[in-house]
Amino acid sequence: MPIRNTVATLLAVALGAAGEGPPGAASCTGCHGNARAGMAIPPIRGMPAEAIGASMRAFRTGERPATVMDRIAKGFTEEETQAIASWFAPR
Questions:
Q1: DSSP letter at 8?
Q2: Residue range 61-74: average pLDDT?
Q3: Which of 57, 73, 83, 87 could lock 8 by a disulfide, CB 3.0 to 4.6 Å apart?
């Protein structure tokens, strides 16, 4: 695992332990926080960090079509995405 991903993961774990998400995580819960399995907007809490990161990269590059997630994903760096993904992933 590259150093920056390790740092992002450690930061996310530390913030999660304090009950706060990394910068940007609160914006995810606006749509994904109230989502239920089977809905158009999937819940992300408990998803593997790798799956969240892969989805964000696919939205960012346009590989995965979206209505708004492509624009949202472009607003996050890879390091921010990794921190957010690690925070939402199961511990």
A1: H
A2: 95
A3: 83
